[in-house]
Structures are given as C-alpha cells and as structure tokens.
C-alpha cells in the first residue's frame, strides 16, 4: 500500500468528481453537434476521475515498493520553516494594500532574512528597508507598475 | 527572403531593441547561473513588466532570457557541480571533472563557443523550417489543430521523468483550470463562484510563478543547501580552449547543433531533451567512451551546443503553428497574446517585422552572450557565493511584485501563493507541474478547436477520425499512450520544464 499515492489519488478523485458534478448541474453540456459550455469541463473532469482511479488502484496494489507513509515525505526536513514562510506570505498579501508596499515588504523581508539562519538585526533591517525602497522607486516610479500605497502613502 | 532578413535587421538595430535584447540575455544568464530560479519562474515574474513595452521589445527580451539561460546554466554546472538549469545537468558530469583537473577555463570557454555555434546554426534552421512549416500549417483546420494539441500534451507526458499516469492527471487538471472563467463562445460563467477575478479566468503568470517560483523556493527551504565554489583567480587567462580541444569537439558541435534543433521542435523537447540526447550520442560515437565522466571535453561541447540549438528549435512550433511545445514557449505565447498578437501561420504575413525582428534578434543575442560570458564569469562566481538564505527573499519579492502588477490586485498574489503551495506539494508527491501549465495554456485553444470542429462539420466526434492528418496525429497520441503498456520500459528522458 503506497499511502502517498493513495492520498494524492483521493485528492484528484475528489477534484474530478467536483468538476463533473459542477459541469452537469451548473452548465449546459449541449450535444456533440452543438457543444455547450459544460462539455469540455465535463470531459476534463471525467479524465481526472478515470486517471485518479487508476492512481488509487495502482497505489493499493503496488508490489515490490516499500510502504511509503505520508510522514516519510517530511522526515528530516525543515517543514516548520516552510509552513512559516507560507503563512507569512499569506499574511503579507492580506496586509499589502492596508499597510502599503514599503512597510509590509520591510516586515516580510526582515522575517525572511531572520528565518532559518538568522541574519544580524541591523543588517536584516537595513537590507530590508533598502530593498523595499529601491523596489518601490524602480517599479512604482520608474516602470510605473503602481504598487499599493497604504495609509502611509507609499 | 533577403528583404525579410533586412527588415528583421532594421528592427533589431533600433536602439530600444538593442537595449532589450541586452537586458534579456543578461537576465537570462543571471537566471541560468542561479540555481533554484529557472527560466519559467523568471519569465513569469517578468511577464507583467512586458506590458509596459512594445510587442517587439517584449518578445526580444523574453526570447533573450530563454536562450541566455542555456549559457548561464553551464557556469554552475562546471564550478559547483550544481546545474543552474535542467538542461545543464549533463554538463556537470564532465565539466565539473574538468574543473577539478584545473581546466575550468577551457570547459567554460567551450560552453560559450559551443553554445554560440549551436545557437547560430539553430537560428539558420529556424529561418528555413519556420517559413516552410507555415505553408503546412495553413492547410490545418480546427480538427487538425485539436489533434496536434492532443499530441503535444500526450508527448509532453510521455517524455516526463515522473509517472506517466500522474503526468496525464496533471494534463487533465490543467485542461479543467483553463475552463475557469467566462465561456468565450457562449458567455456562461464557469467555476467562478461569483468572483470577479475568476471571471477573467486564471492568469498564467501567477500560476506559473506559484508553481515554479514559490513552489521551488519552498522545496529548497526544506533542505540545507551547501555550495563549494571553485576559485577562479587566473581563470580568465585560460578561457580559450586549445586546438586539441577544438579538434576533439568539432564533430560533437556539428552533431549537437543538428540533433538539438530537431529535438527542440518536439513537444516537451527543447534544450533539456537535446542536451541529454547529445551526451548519449557522443558517448556512443566516441573512440574513448571510458573518458566520459572523467573530464571529456566532448561531453561538454556536444550537450551545450545541443541545448542552445534546441532552444532555437523550440520556437518553430510556436511561430509556425501558434502552439507552444514546452512551458517556456507557453509563456512566450502568453507574451504574444498580452500584446494582442496571435502567433501562427499568419504572423509571417501580417506582422513580418515582429517575425523577422525576433529571429534576427537571436543572432544578435547569441553574439552578446558570447561576448558577455567570457569576461563576466568572475561576476557570476561572486553571485554564486551569495547564500540562498539571502537570495530567496529577493526572488519572493519579485514574484509578489509580478503577480500584483498584473491587475493591481492582491487576489493575484493569493493565487500565486496557493499555486506555490500546490507546486510544493506536487514536487513532494512526484507530480510534474510542467504538464499542468502546458495543458492550461493549450486548454482554451484545444476547446476552441474542439467545439468549432463539432459545430462546423456536424459529424460528432467522427470528424477527428475522418480527416487524414487529424487521424494520423491521434494515432501518434494513442501509440504514445499505449507504448509504456506494450513495452513495459521506463526510461528517464527529461522534459523542458521549469528548472
């Protein structure tokens, strides 16, 4: 039994069933001579269901392969840091338009620089501030990309 | 043809084109040098910036990045034994051994010259084949286009190093993702959940940046990355290969150019497949195959030539048919579309300045790369010494800016982060994100061709089997799908993906 493939197979099977159900219920499938908006998603969903079922069956009957548990994927890795970075990015996207580009970017960069192998506070703060300001000037002012201003106005 | 070439030269010699060609190849070399950031991640980040350029400038820069990456990737392969790009993996085998024997300069020099020759020959062949295939493409109708794209997705799956079944699953998922948004034919809202952002569909840049940029970063953060970089003092004095090196490398370079170009045309091919195949062939043809793996210069010259020729070859399907054959070309297609240009058989007649300007810029770009790579090796080595813990925040920052700038919306940033997490999990569970992205790009084109075929020919699904070219293409796809079952062999053939 290959738990890794079993898990991923179940996820894709669920996704495929969601797509098929959504296509049939919410969209017009049409016919093969007058295809509707739902036909192509339905075909994609059916393919997803079929292929994920094969993955599941293969995972259940895997021979000569040692049992691969889910925990094996993260053994000996710095997964808490990965989770932290992901959480920080999501928080950053939530605060970006409220706090403005420069302030939120400084905070994010300090967090990232100080993360796994901590940089000295002074260096991290200086590098973060310099990078955020330089990026703002380059993208917002020179390239006219329009970054969020926030309550500070930049 | 001569008038067209002169038109292209005229376009390229404009100061703005020269500038963006230089910026593209410089950025491409830098991206190639930096492990952890591939051409797809870099192109995804820069795609929104191209909105502020003219179409010619954007295409010249983006193309320059792609073939520039092939030059840069060899530097880390030789000096660190870490491939900067997937297409430079084989260069590690003999290039690093040459460096250990004090011949890093000759290895780097041969990479630069071989890449230049491969790129130049590739461009010549591109000019011939792209123009010839345009005439073939004009005879294609919707059923043929649909079948060709099916072959493209299946072939990419076939060539993927991951499980074929998992790659096909990613293809199906990519096709579904491409349907999110407003149906272009009927106007119905599909899987948008009332979101205004999703009504425009999923933009490619945040998805690609997420899967290949953020996802790659998250995978790298899990591990401890250590680097030992060779000292390069005095290296530049010995950068030119010797006459003996040239004698040993001349036929690998010729073979690499031709093999690389034709392999580059294949869906899923490009530089990666070309470099691996070239190495295998050179080892097979060598009079001293036992020297491969010990510092044989043929093992560097052939693959590096092939990967540049392959990079040029991969432009052929896009320019002739409007169909990308790998993820990088998919992003180039996105660049075309963002600027309101549809690549394909009509590009040559409707926008000859763009078609020929792009091709001529490749000559110029290859010359710039040859000039850049020799004196800048010291600089690239300094860049390599920067710890990844300092580099990755900058990559994250550029990804965020790139995603936000698309629509001045944090929703695109969130989409990028979500796909970043997905990309991370996909790598953990051994799924290939390249197939997902290619299917997502081809999805709208496939659906359009599929539905038009059914409506126009009113013959249900038989229309794809009744037309000879379409039938032949579908037969190829079926063969590729059944081949692993028939022969029960799995060979590692790398595919052009994100790295």
Overview of this protein structure:
The complex is a heterodimer of chains A (154) and B (499). With 154 residues, chain A is mostly helical. In chain A, helix 1 packs antiparallel against helix 2 (39-60) and helix 3 runs antiparallel to helix 4 (101-113). Chain A has 5 helices and no strands. The N and C termini of chain A lie far apart (55 Å). Helices cover 66% and strands 0% of the residues of chain A. Chain B is mainly alpha-helical. Chain B is 73% helix and 1% strand. Chain B has a two-stranded antiparallel ribbon. The longest helix of chain B is centred in the N-terminal third of the chain and has 34 residues, at 104-137. Chain B starts with a helix and ends in a 12-residue tail after the last helix. The model of chain B is unreliable at 491-499 (pLDDT under 50). Classes of the chains: A mainly alpha (154), B mainly alpha (499). At the A-B interface, helix 1, helix 2, helix 3, helix 4 and helix 5 of A face helix 8, helix 10, helix 19, helix 20 and helix 21 of B.
């Amino acid at each position: 039994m290959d738990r890794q493939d079993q898990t991923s197979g179940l996820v894709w099977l669920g996704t495929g069933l969601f797509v098929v159900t959504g296509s049939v219920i919410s969209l017009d499938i049409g016919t093969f001579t007058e295809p509707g908006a739902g036909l192509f998603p339905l075909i994609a969903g059916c393919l997803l269901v079929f292929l994920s079922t094969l993955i599941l069956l293969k995972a259940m009957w895997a021979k000569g392969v040692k049992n691969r548990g889910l925990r094996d994927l993260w053994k000996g890795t710095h997964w808490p840091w990965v989770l932290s970075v992901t959480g920080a990015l999501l928080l950053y996207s939530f605060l970006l338009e409220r706090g403005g580009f420069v302030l939120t970017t400084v905070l994010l960069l300090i967090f990232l620089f100080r993360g796994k192998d901590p940089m000295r506070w002074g260096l991290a703060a200086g590098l973060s501030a310099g990078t955020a300001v330089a990026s703002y000037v380059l993208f917002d002012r020179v390239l006219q990309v329009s970054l969020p201003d926030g309550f500070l106005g930049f | 043809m001569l008038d067209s070439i002169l038109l292209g030269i005229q376009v390229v010699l404009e100061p703005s084109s020269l500038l963006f060609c230089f910026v593209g190849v410089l950025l491409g070399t830098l991206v190639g040098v930096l492990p952890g950031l591939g051409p797809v991640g870099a192109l995804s980040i820069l795609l929104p910036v191209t909105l502020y350029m003219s179409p010619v400038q954007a295409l010249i820069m983006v193309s320059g990045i792609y073939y520039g990456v092939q030059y840069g990737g060899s530097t880390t392969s030789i000096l660190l034994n870490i491939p900067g790009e997937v297409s430079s993996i084989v260069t590690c085998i003999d290039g690093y051994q040459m460096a250990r024997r004090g011949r890093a300069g000759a290895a780097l020099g041969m990479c630069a010259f071989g890449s230049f020759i491969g790129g130049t020959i590739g461009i010549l062949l591109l000019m011939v084949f792209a123009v010839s295939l345009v005439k073939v493409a004009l005879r294609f109708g919707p059923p043929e286009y649909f079948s060709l794209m099916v072959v493209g997705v299946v072939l990419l799956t076939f060539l993927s190093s991951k499980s074929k079944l998992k790659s096909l699953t990613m293809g199906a998922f990519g096709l579904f993702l491409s349907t999110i948004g407003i149906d272009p034919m009927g106007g119905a809202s599909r899987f948008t959940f009332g979101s205004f952002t999703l009504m425009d569909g999923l933009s490619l840049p945040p998805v690609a940046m997420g899967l290949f940029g953020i996802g790659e970063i998250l995978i790298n953060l899990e591990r401890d990355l250590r680097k030992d970089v060779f000292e390069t003092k005095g290296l530049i004095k010995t950068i030119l290969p010797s006459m003996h090196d040239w004698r040993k490398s001349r036929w690998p370079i010729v073979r690499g150019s031709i093999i690389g170009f034709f392999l580059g045309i294949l869906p899923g091919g490009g530089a990666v497949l070309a470099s691996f195949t070239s190495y295998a062939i050179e080892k097979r043809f060598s009079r001293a195959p036992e020297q491969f793996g010990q510092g044989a210069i043929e093992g560097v010259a052939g693959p590096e030539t092939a990967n540049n020729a392959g990079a040029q070859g991969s432009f052929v399907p896009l320019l002739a048919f409007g169909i990308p054959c790998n993820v990088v070309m998919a992003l180039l297609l996105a660049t075309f579309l963002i600027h309101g240009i549809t690549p394909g058989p009509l590009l040559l007649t409707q926008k000859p300045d763009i078609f020929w300007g792009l091709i001529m810029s490749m000559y110029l770009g290859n010359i710039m790369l040859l000039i850049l790579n020799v004196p800048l090796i010291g600089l690239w080595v300094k860049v390599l010494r920067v710890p990844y813990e300092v580099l990755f925040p900058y990559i994250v920052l550029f990804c965020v800016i790139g995603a936000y700038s698309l629509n001045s919306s944090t929703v695109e940033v969130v989409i990028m982060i979500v796909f970043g997490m997905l990309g991370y999990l996909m790598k953990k569970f051994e799924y290939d994100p390249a197939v997902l992205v290619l299917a997502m790009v081809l999805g709208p084109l496939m659906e359009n061709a599929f539905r038009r075929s059914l409506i126009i020919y009113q013959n249900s699904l038989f229309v794809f089997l009744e037309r000879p070219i379409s039938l032949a293409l579908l037969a190829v796809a079926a063969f590729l799908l059944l081949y692993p079952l028939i022969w029960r062999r799995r060979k590692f053939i790398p595919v052009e993906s994100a790295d």
